[in-house]
Write a structure and sequence with these properties.
Blueprint: H1 14-17, H2 28-58, H3 66-93, H4 100-113, H5 117-141, H6 143-150, E1 156-160, E2 163-167, E3 177-180, E4 190-192, E5 196-200, H7 202-205, E6 211-214, E7 218-219, E8 224-225, E9 230-234, H8 242-253, H9 259-284, H10 295-309, H11 312-331, E10 334-336, H12 339-345, E11 350-353, E12 360-371, H13 376-387, H14 393-398, E13 410-416, E14 420-425, E15 428-433, H15 435-440, E16 455-461, E17 464-475, H16 479-488, E18 493-497, H17 502-511, E19 516-518, H18 523-534, E20 541-545, H19 551-556, E21 559-563, H20 569-574, E22 577-579, H21 586-620, H22 626-645
Parallel strand pairs: 11-18, 11-20, 18-19, 20-21, 21-22
Antiparallel strand pairs: 1-2, 1-3, 3-9, 4-7, 4-9, 5-6, 5-8, 10-22, 12-17, 13-14, 14-15, 15-16, 16-17
Helix pairs in contact: 2-3, 2-5, 3-4, 3-5, 4-5, 4-10, 5-11, 5-22, 9-10, 9-11, 10-21, 10-22, 11-21, 11-22, 12-21, 21-22
Length: 654
């Protein structure tokens, strides 16, 4: 999937976004003045309009007539009207005539032509106020994305020439040592060189709970160091770091339009010129059919028609709805790569999932220790002494067994290909491996080991079977509840596809109540299974995975979902949705956020069209004034925007 790339050098770091941080000056008062200045034209026009209406109504000044009255209302109109007319003229010069600026300009100028000065000013004033509200709403919707920009690290303390120096993260190379103090952000992805560290990863995962990392484990750019000075060794350049990747995805997401959004914009381009020609028809056609035709009355109706027909409620509030959905999702640790995927997620009825790293933790742990005629602690000392000679993931899991006392040392250790290890520990011959190793050395094992589907390590000491250890991948804490919740939100078909052996895959699927599961699959096998599902046009398929081997299936699915924390870079690049917390339950939340977004978008469409159609009919029949027209345009737009902003305050429970 090709994606537009964002140049991260063009994104302002937090020092440029918030000037209060480092320059020693307090700009808050000047910023407040700047915000107030935005509202000054509308305030001036409102005061002038109210004074003019009061003079008209109470007939306070007899000389407030003729050119004085016109000049007064023109002065009230210019602060809010001139910027709109200017934008309309710019659009016309670019060849885009039928814009909302053009509609508002001819409607309000037409009101002045027929002597309806207060209404002309009022329409433009309400339009300007509506634009200010729209701007405020957009800024609120952008809040979560700006929060991502705010966590972008802007300096790194790198060890060079026997000293730590402060440099831009973009200049740090892979393999350099970086120091991070308490409260500072991790500038680049790397591995922890210090013994341990505690990190706030909320900017990356949406989870506020601090994450404790041990020496040698991965740390990610954008995380905040919570405890003590630490050192890391960088493993990626800044442009490839986790925070840079998130920024890239979110920035690109706002540029990807949903089908609904694209339809409304195309619709507005066709709809607007039709409305203009209908307004012309409303003005002149009645001359041929009405006996008491009065040009001024029918022009007034046409102007009302124009004001009502302005499509800004749709054109602005619908994209804002999707923008709000994207922001709400990112706040919850879910990154959609575009509004189109918000739409696609609402239709998902089939979920295909990988096993390892998706519903399991992807880390081997000791599940069971069975020592035969041996004390468990003593048995494990022999086993660990042997496994210290191995780099296999299973050996690593066994070595995590903690116990007091001095460990034994193994000597004369040899590896028997495909079977295990043989060596001497504490003067005794020890065999560690699979059943083939035991059989080859005439060691009788317990029958119960035959029924164990997980990885099993058999141990013989001095030619006698001493016991076994079962090693298994653990289920994630929320794996079971995820399957139940998926059924509740309407995802009825759930399938597990795994490269792990089929017996283990079936066991995990059984624990999770997944009816269809297949193991021992190559990447092309997974792809074939999904292609078979796609042959049924009623299946809307999402695939969730985390490994390089999942990339082809992620690309082929209607919605590809990748685990962003432990997931491979290839999977994350290919996917349409990224789960930053590695929690499968977030898929349920992603579906709920998508459906909430779509619901609000359609509420706005129905609201805008419904009110406009009613008032258009009333206006054409002479039953609606310019004031009703203002409500049908600006009022509906504001209601739609406020409805869209609700997404920022919603809470979703998995």
């Amino acid at each position: 999937m090709k994606k537009k790339k964002v140049n991260l050098r063009d994104i302002k770091p937090n020092s440029e976004i918030d000037h209060n941080q480092n320059d020693g000056h307090n700009h808050s008062s000047s910023e407040n003045i700047g915000k107030f200045n935005i509202y000054l034209p509308a305030i001036f026009s409102f005061v002038m309009l109210m004074i003019g209406i009061a003079i008209d109504y109470f007939d306070m000044f007899p000389y407030f007539k003729g050119w004085i009255r016109i000049l007064w209302y023109v002065m009230a109109y210019i602060p809010v009207g001139f910027p709109v007319i200017k934008e309309g003229w710019k659009s016309i010069k670019k060849g885009d005539v039928f814009t909302e600026f053009f509609l508002m300009s001819i409607a309000t100028i037409g009101a002045f032509v027929i002597g309806e000065y207060p209404e002309g000013v009022a329409v433009m004033l309400f339009y300007a106020v509506g634009e200010l509200f729209q701007s405020a709403a957009v800024n609120k919707a952008k809040g979560n994305i700006k929060a991502l920009l705010d966590v972008r690290p802007n300096e790194a303390l790198v060890y060079r020439n026997n000293d730590y120096i402060s440099v831009s993260p973009e200049t740090v190379e892979i393999g350099e040592k970086v120091q991070v103090r308490v409260g500072e952000k991790i500038p680049l992805d790397g591995i922890l060189l210090s013994e341990k560290g505690s990190f706030n990863t909320a900017a990356l995962t949406g989870e506020s709970k601090p994450d404790t990392i041990a020496k040698g484990e991965k740390v990610f750019a954008g995380s905040i160091n919570m405890d003590g000075v630490i050192e890391i060794e960088t493993t990626k350049e800044f442009k490839d770091s986790s925070i840079a990747r998130i920024l890239d995805m979110v920035q690109n997401a706002t540029a990807r339009k949903s089908k609904t959004e694209l339809f409304i914009r195309q619709f507005a381009r066709i709809y607007t010129p039709i409305v203009v020609f209908l307004a012309i028809a409303v003005t002149f056609l009645p001359y041929f059919f009405v006996d008491d035709y009065v040009f001024r009355d029918w022009l007034y109706r046409a102007l009302i028609f124009l004001v009502i027909s302005c499509p800004c409620a749709l054109v602005i509030s619908i994209p804002l709805g999707y923008f709000g959905g994207l922001g709400a999702a990112s706040k919850n640790g879910i990154l959609f790569k575009g509004a189109s995927f918000l739409d696609a997620m609402t239709k998902i009825n089939t979920l295909v999932m990988d096993k390892t790293g998706t519903v399991t933790k992807g880390v081997f742990k000791i599940k069971k220790i069975e020592a035969i005629n041996w004390d468990e602690k003593e048995f494990m000392k022999y086993l660990m002494a042997m496994e210290e000679q191995s780099t296999h993931p299973i050996a690593k899991a066994i070595l995590e067994y903690k116990d007091e006392g001095t460990d034994y040392e193994a000597s004369e250790v040899s590896e028997i290909a495909g079977k295990g290890l043989k060596g001497i520990v504490n003067g005794k011959t020890v065999l560690v491996g699979n059943k083939a190793l035991m059989t080859a050395n005439n060691i009788n094992v317990l029958e119960e080991t035959e029924t164990i589907v997980e990885s099993i390590v058999l141990v013989s000491i001095d030619n006698t079977f001493a016991g076994y250890v079962v090693i298994a991948d653990e289920l994630k804490e929320d794996a079971k509840e995820t399957i139940t919740a998926l059924h509740k939100v309407g995802v009825k078909n759930i399938m597990m596809l795994s490269g792990d052996k089929d017996s283990i895959t079936q066991k995990v699927a059984s624990e999770l109540n997944i009816e269809i599961a297949k193991g021992g699959l190559l990447p092309e096998d997974k792809l074939n299974e999904v292609e078979i599902l796609k042959q049924n046009p009623n299946n809307k398929i999402a695939f969730i995975g985390d490994g390089i081997n999942d990339a082809p299936v992620l690309a082929a699915s209607d919605v590809g979902i990748a685990m962003g924390g432990l997931g491979s870079d290839v999977a994350i690049e290919t996917a349409d949705v990224i789960i930053q917390t590695d929690q499968p339950s977030k898929v349920v939340r992603a579906i709920k956020i998508s459906r909430s977004t779509r619901k609000i978008v359609w509420q706005n469409i129905i609201l805008a069209f419904g009110v406009k159609v009613i008032v258009l009919i009333l206006g054409a029949g002479g039953l609606a004034t310019m004031w009703e027209a203002v409500f049908a345009d600006v009022g509906v737009a504001l209601l739609a925007i406020l409805n869209a902003v609700r997404l920022q305050r919603m809470k979703w429970v998995d």
